[in-house]
């Protein structure tokens, strides 16, 4: 079977091969085999008996049977109609199924509920099956199920449904019995359940390219079997909550607070936060308050304060509000707490708290011909050959940071990179991201003072073109924009922006102004750029935009807020 390297970004020896999806009809089987090999080698000490047994049974199967099982694994659900498991490269479906049934990887006689029948079969097929039990066979599918539910309330096998209805099903149905094991193996390979096996195909076809990072035993996603089980437990709880299961049962199934794993505790906190939000929306405020207090989610404390206000627990709300400003989890939390505190002071009859003076940007008002894109209209109005304007919202500063600090972002630290399909480190959004790499980032940022930063950025721009990055959106950066940025943006300002990014990557890589205008011919020693936030009719500054503008104001960075009105709204022709 032909294969090509999955990762080819820097010429290193490929760490994993993927099948040629355009020329190998069983590419998916080659890729699945690679996953099993990778997991077997890297997680040999953590695999449980079920996982080892599955890998052994799978590898002993004939090739057509292995291919059919992988096809099923990559489809949705566990139940499959045999007549819809036809693949040219596999051959006769029943022949391929027989070893899967023999090895108990597939159940040939699964119990099927009425709901499952309605998911697997078409309306016309169902009318044929239940023709003697439908008073109004012309009804829509949902109404047909509603009519049959009181009568057929038990799960039956294929033969059982045949006997009960007097009509055969139009296709036999089989159930994949090893989906949970395969999902755990996927979790160990990717370190999450967000990524699918399709990553192999995207890499093979060159749609996605990834940085090559060396792997060590310490760089595995999981170091203990217990962490795999706890991840799965938290994931299952979220799935059950989203499916509408009883909240008390979901909460009881969650693991206790995970003091020894920050990232798993963060996942647990997100589940608790989601349940708390649901309780708040349902008016169960006391319960919501208790859950917010247990969640480490970044927005939990502010929501807790708001719920306490509604419960008239103003003293407790104020104490939390003050704590949020003295030791905020983010700038956003501090900003929101500062907005709430005056209201709490009024309610409690306290003196108004001191407020920080807001830094305001220069204001520009424009009346322009109506356009479908207000940013494009402003750019066209302001741009000139001497002062070109670019649309760069949340892309330019991030890209310059990503290019200058490439080696720090992709440093092969434990727990950061554990498979070849990562666009960035797994801990990018965790509190420990910067502290663990502080020395790496300090060396990168020092180039802004040393004078080598322009050459480094250009070199990375050429070498890494098209490789996935959490900061560089390649489609938004071209040679002209890069050259003007390097010419006109002061390194001191770049350092301020980059350091702010590192304080809270999730929040601070958004909210940046829409446009940037360069003045490449301005005298040395003067500011040669201006950032412009565009606001169309009725639009207002968002909180994250206000924080960026205030930050720029504190560091004497030129920002203008441009308010636009349409000419036809002003009675102009």
Automatic annotation (TrEMBL):
Transmembrane segments: none annotated. Residues 448-566 form the VRR-NUC domain. Gene3D superfamilies: 3.40.1350.10. GO terms for biological process: interstrand cross-link repair. Pfam families: FAN1_HTH, FANC_SAP, VRR_NUC. Its EC number is 3.1.4.1. It is an enzyme of class 3 (hydrolase). Signal peptide: none annotated. Its cofactor is Mg(2+); Mn(2+). Coiled coil: none annotated. InterPro entries: Fan1-like, FAN1-like_WH, FAN1_SAP_bact, tRNA_endonuc-like_dom_sf, VRR_NUC. This is phosphodiesterase I. It comes from Kushneria phyllosphaerae. The lineage of its organism: Bacteria, Pseudomonadati, Pseudomonadota, Gammaproteobacteria, Oceanospirillales. The gene is fan1.
């Amino acid at each position: 079977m032909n294969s090509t390297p999955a990762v080819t970004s820097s010429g290193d020896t490929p760490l994993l091969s993927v099948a040629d999806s355009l020329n190998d009809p069983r590419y998916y089987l080659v890729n699945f085999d690679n996953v099993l090999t990778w997991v077997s080698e890297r997680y040999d000490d953590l695999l449980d008996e079920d996982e080892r047994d599955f890998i052994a049974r799978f590898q002993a199967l004939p090739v057509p049977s292995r291919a059919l099982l992988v096809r099923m694994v990559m489809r949705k659900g566990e139940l499959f109609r045999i007549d819809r498991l036809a693949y040219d490269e596999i051959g006769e479906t029943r022949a391929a199924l027989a070893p899967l049934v023999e090895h108990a990887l597939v159940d040939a006689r699964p119990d099927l509920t009425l709901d499952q029948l309605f998911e697997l079969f078409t309306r016309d097929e169902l009318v044929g099956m239940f023709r003697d039990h439908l008073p109004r066979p012309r009804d829509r599918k949902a109404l047909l199920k509603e009519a049959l539910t009181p009568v057929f309330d038990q799960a039956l096998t294929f033969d059982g449904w045949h006997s009960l209805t007097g009509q055969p099903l139009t296709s036999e149905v089989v159930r994949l019995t090893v989906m949970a094991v395969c999902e755990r193996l996927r979790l160990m390979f990717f370190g999450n359940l967000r990524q699918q096996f399709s990553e192999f195909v995207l890499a093979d076809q060159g749609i996605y390219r990834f940085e090559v990072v060396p792997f060590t035993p310490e760089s595995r996603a999981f170091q203990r079997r217990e962490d795999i089980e706890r991840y799965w437990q938290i994931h299952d709880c979220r799935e059950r909550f989203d499916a509408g299961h009883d909240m008390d049962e979901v909460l009881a199934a969650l693991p206790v607070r995970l003091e020894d794993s920050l990232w798993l505790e963060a996942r647990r906190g997100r589940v608790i936060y989601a349940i708390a939000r649901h309780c708040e929306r349902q008016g169960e405020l006391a319960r919501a308050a208790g859950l917010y207090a247990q969640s480490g989610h970044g927005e939990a404390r502010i929501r807790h304060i708001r719920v306490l206000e509604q419960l008239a627990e103003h003293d407790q709300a104020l104490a939390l509000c003050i704590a949020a400003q003295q030791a905020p989890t983010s700038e956003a939390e501090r900003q929101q707490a500062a907005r709430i505190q005056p209201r709490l002071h009024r309610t409690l009859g306290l003196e108004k708290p001191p407020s920080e003076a807001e830094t305001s940007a220069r204001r520009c008002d424009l009346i322009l011909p109506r356009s479908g894109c207000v940013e494009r209209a402003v750019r066209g109005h302001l741009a000139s050959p001497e002062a070109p304007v670019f649309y760069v919202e949340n892309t330019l500063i991030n890209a310059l940071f990503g290019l200058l600090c490439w080696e720090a972002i992709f440093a092969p630290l434990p727990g950061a990179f554990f498979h070849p399909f990562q666009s960035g480190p797994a801990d990018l959004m965790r509190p420990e991201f910067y502290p663990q790499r502080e020395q790496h980032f300090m060396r990168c940022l020092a180039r802004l003072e040393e004078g080598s930063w322009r050459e480094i950025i250009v070199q990375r721009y050429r070498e890494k073109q098209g490789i996935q990055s959490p900061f560089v959106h390649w489609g938004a950066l071209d040679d002209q924009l890069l050259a003007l940025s390097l010419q006109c943006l002061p390194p001191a300002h770049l350092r301020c922006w980059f350091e702010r990014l590192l304080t809270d990557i999730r929040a601070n890589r958004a909210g940046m102004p829409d446009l940037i205008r360069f003045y490449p011919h301005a005298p040395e020693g003067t500011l040669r750029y201006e950032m412009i936030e565009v606001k169309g009719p009725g639009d207002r500054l968002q909180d994250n935009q206000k924080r960026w503008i205030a930050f720029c104001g504190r560091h004497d960075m030129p920002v203008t807020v441009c308010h636009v009105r349409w000419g036809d709204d002003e009675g102009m022709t």
